[in-house]
Write a structure and sequence with these properties.
This protein is an alpha/beta fold. It is built from 10 helices and 15 strands. It is elongated and about 70 Å long.
Length: 390
């Protein structure tokens, strides 16, 4: 299709297929999954839509040039040869980010510096002035990917990571990343067609992401800026049209979403974040101790992120045993999913998980586990399931 170009989306480990499904549902072409990334074809409007709507994307890159690098001079000269004025103005500030696995170079900061030199020298030559460098809050981000001698130079259309949705104004000691939260929910099969409960809601991220999925609200509707807005080909009219069309696809939600936490500070922060996301009409938050209270919603989809014992001090074996005991005694009929990096403590839950998915919470290798809490014993459940099929 005319106007289409190749893009690459970065995501977290274990979410590649979920992201591919999101892209497929949005209408992307030629989708291919990699490790922590998915590539696809789309036009300018689709790039805007992908940044606005994808829930499990961290960055959306537009590759500009690919070449071989055997020496630092190869890197500089290939970057210098590019027509940078085609993409952004010399008055823009820039930052260069490098990811690499290469025997040619051993320092990513050196690579970023060489690429920056090639860009600013080209602008000096052609425009008589050069972009400034702003590593914290640039107008334009350039991404460099080096694998051995293969180099790809891309424009980062997103800017700051897309997990920075713009709705979270308060956090707890161990907040969960918004993209990780959305990925957990999508991996659990959450689609907004039942009640939802997070019994350890912290600052409310899972609740907010659950409501946005349920109502089909664009993931980054609260975000104020994307780097593509500073590109030379930015089409503000098209971007506004994409936003309006995405908002028109919001759907009603008739079930309940509820979060509880035993810490008053967590309840306050979650309440404020929910209000800032304009989702108070869909989400209820109360102060409750999961281990000492009756289920506020019966038979709900449950997804939560309990303490791991990393930043919050707990007796992990005892804590996870109490999770299992509470689920068995009070939550029959629930579909329960939770994430933990404490693989030893998970042994004390006392329940056999139906599914295990390897994910990372930051640098912590974790498992997202599903526990189907049945009424009665397993044999009677299997018998009922067989009778239903028959």
């Amino acid at each position: 299709m005319a106007g289409n170009f190749r893009m690459l989306v970065k995501t977290q480990f274990g979410m590649e297929q979920i992201l591919a499904n999101e892209l497929r549902n949005l209408g992307a072409g030629d989708i291919k999954t990699g490790v922590r990334n998915v590539s696809f074809d789309g036009d300018l409007g689709f790039m805007y839509k992908a940044n606005l709507c994808l829930r499990t994307a961290l960055k959306i890159l537009k590759p500009l040039s690919r070449f071989k690098v055997f020496h630092e001079k190869d890197l500089y000269h290939n970057v210098f040869r590019m027509d940078w004025a085609k993409y952004f103005d010399a008055d823009c500030s820039i930052a260069v980010d490098t990811t690499m696995h290469s025997t040619v170079f051993n320092n990513s900061m050196f690579v970023s510096q060489k690429v920056k030199d090639g860009i600013v020298d080209k602008f000096r030559r052609t425009a008589g002035r050069r972009p400034s460098v702003n590593s914290q809050d640039p107008d334009v981000r350039i991404n460099v990917h080096l694998y051995e001698e293969n180099c790809t130079i891309s424009l980062d259309s997103s800017g700051n990571s897309l997990h920075q949705r713009g709705y979270r104004i308060e956090t707890n000691l161990a907040p969960i990343n918004e993209v990780l939260a959305a990925g957990m929910l999508l991996l659990s099969g959450w689609d907004g067609r039942s009640d939802f409960y997070d019994p350890m809601c912290g600052s409310g991220t899972l609740l907010i992401e659950a409501a946005m999925i349920a109502c089909n609200i664009p993931a980054n509707i609260n975000r104020e800026f994307y780097c593509f807005q500073n590109w030379a080909d930015f089409d503000e009219t098209l971007f506004d049209k994409i936003k309006t069309a995405s908002l028109n696809k919001i759907r009603p939600f008739t079930y309940k979403i509820m979060g509880t936490d035993k810490a008053p500070s967590a309840v306050r922060k979650a309440t404020e974040n929910v209000a800032h996301a304009n989702l108070s009409e869909f989400i209820t938050i109360e102060r409750k101790d999961f281990f000492r209270s009756e289920p506020p919603i019966s038979g709900a989809k449950m997804v939560f992120n309990p303490p791991y014992g990393e930043r919050l001090t707990i007796d992990a074996p005892e804590f996870y045993k109490k999770i299992g005991d509470t689920l068995k005694s009070s939550y029959a009929g629930s579909d329960v999913w939770f994430l933990s990096s404490n693989l030893e403590a998970l042994k004390f839950v006392g329940l056999r998980p139906s599914k295990k998915v390897k994910l990372f919470n930051g640098k912590l290798e974790s498992r997202l586990l599903q526990y189907e809490i049945f009424s009665g014993d397993m044999s009677s459940h299997k018998r009922k399931k067989h009778e239903t099929k028959a």
